[in-house]
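Budget justification aside, the reviewers requested a transparent look at the raw inputs and outputs of the sequence design task funded under Objective 1. We therefore reproduce one unedited record. The lines immediately below are the C-alpha cells for a 276-residue chain.
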C-alpha cells in the first residue's frame, strides 16, 4: 500500500479519536443506537484528504479534489444513474420482502416530503465527505497497487473498522456488527465497480452512498439482527455477481460483451474461416 494511503488512514483515525472519546463519555444519542457524534464523523475523511492534498499539491490540488464532488461529466453513459440510484433500494426491498415472508414486523417510517428532502441533502453531504476521500483520494492507488477487487475489499475492511467505535457505542452486538461488516465490505466493492465504470466519478459513488443510507434508514426495524443478516448476504451476493460479470482485476470489463463480440466475429468469419 502506498504511503499517501497509509497517511490518510492514520490521520483519519487520529482525527476521529476525539469524537469517539466524546461519544463514549457523554453517551448522548441522536436517536436510540446512534451517538450524536455521527453527525460530524462522515466529514473527517475529506478533511484528512484535503490536509494531505494541500501538503502534496497545494491549493490547486485542493480545488481539483473538491471539484470532483460534481464530476458527473465523467460518466460514459447516463444509464449508470440507474444502478447508482436504484441498486441499493432494490436490495432493501428484497430484504424487506424476505423479512415479511418470515413474519417479522417491519414498519415503515412516515416521512413528510420536506423531511425526505432534508435527509437526501444531509446524506449526500455525508456521502461526499467520505467519497471524496475513499473514491477521490485512496482507491486509485490501492487498486493500481493491488487490483480493483482486492483494493476494494481492503478499503472496505478499513471502512468497517473506522465505524466500529460508533457501532459499539450504539450498543450493537457482535453478531450484528459481523453481518453489517460483510455488507459494508461488499458495498465498497460495489462502489469501486460503479466508480470504475462511470469514468471514475466521485459523484456517481456519492449518489450510491446517499441511497445506501437513505434506503436503510427508511425502514424502522432494519436495525434488527435478522434485517442486517439479510442485507449483508444480499449485498455480498450482488457484489459476487458483479465480480463474476466484470472481472476482479478492474471490475470494469464486462465479460458478456467479450462473449458477444466472439460470437459476432465467428458469424462474420463463417464456418470455413481459419483462426488467426
Amino acid at each position: 500500500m502506498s504511503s499517501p494511503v497509509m497517511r490518510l488512514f492514520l490521520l483519519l483515525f487520529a482525527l476521529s479519536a476525539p469524537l469517539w472519546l466524546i461519544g463514549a463519555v457523554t453517551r448522548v444519542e441522536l436517536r436510540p443506537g446512534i451517538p450524536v457524534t455521527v453527525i460530524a464523523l462522515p466529514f473527517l475523511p475529506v478533511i484528512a484528504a484535503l490536509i494531505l492534498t494541500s501538503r502534496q499539491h497545494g491549493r490547486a490540488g485542493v480545488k481539483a479534489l473538491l471539484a470532483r464532488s460534481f464530476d458527473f461529466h465523467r460518466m460514459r453513459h447516463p444509464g449508470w444513474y440507474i444502478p447508482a440510484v436504484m441498486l441499493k433500494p432494490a436490495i432493501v426491498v428484497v430484504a424487506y420482502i424476505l423479512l415479511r415472508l418470515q413474519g417479522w414486523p417491519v414498519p415503515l417510517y412516515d416521512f413528510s416530503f420536506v423531511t425526505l428532502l432534508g435527509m437526501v441533502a444531509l446524506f449526500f453531504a455525508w456521502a461526499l465527505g467520505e467519497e471524496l476521500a475513499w473514491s477521490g483520494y485512496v482507491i486509485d492507488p490501492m487498486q493500481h497497487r493491488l487490483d480493483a477487487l482486492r483494493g476494494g475489499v481492503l478499503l472496505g475492511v478499513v471502512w468497517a473498522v473506522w465505524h466500529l467505535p460508533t457501532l459499539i457505542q450504539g450498543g450493537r452486538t457482535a453478531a450484528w456488527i459481523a453481518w453489517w461488516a460483510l455488507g459494508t465490505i461488499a458495498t465498497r466493492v460495489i462502489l469501486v465497480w460503479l466508480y470504475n465504470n462511470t469514468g471514475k466519478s466521485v459523484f456517481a459513488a456519492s449518489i450510491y452512498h446517499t441511497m445506501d443510507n437513505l434506503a436503510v434508514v427508511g425502514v424502522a426495524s432494519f436495525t434488527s439482527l435478522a434485517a442486517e443478516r439479510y442485507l449483508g448476504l444480499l449485498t455480498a451476493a450482488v457484489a459476487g455477481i458483479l465480480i463474476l460479470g466484470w472481472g476482479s482485476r478492474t471490475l470494469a470489463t464486462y465479460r458478456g460483451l467479450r462473449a458477444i463480440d466472439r460470437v459476432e466475429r465467428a458469424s462474420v468469419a463463417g464456418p470455413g474461416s481459419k483462426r488467426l
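Strands lie at 29-31, 34-35. The chain has a mean pLDDT of 89. Computational costs for records of this kind are itemized in the attached budget.
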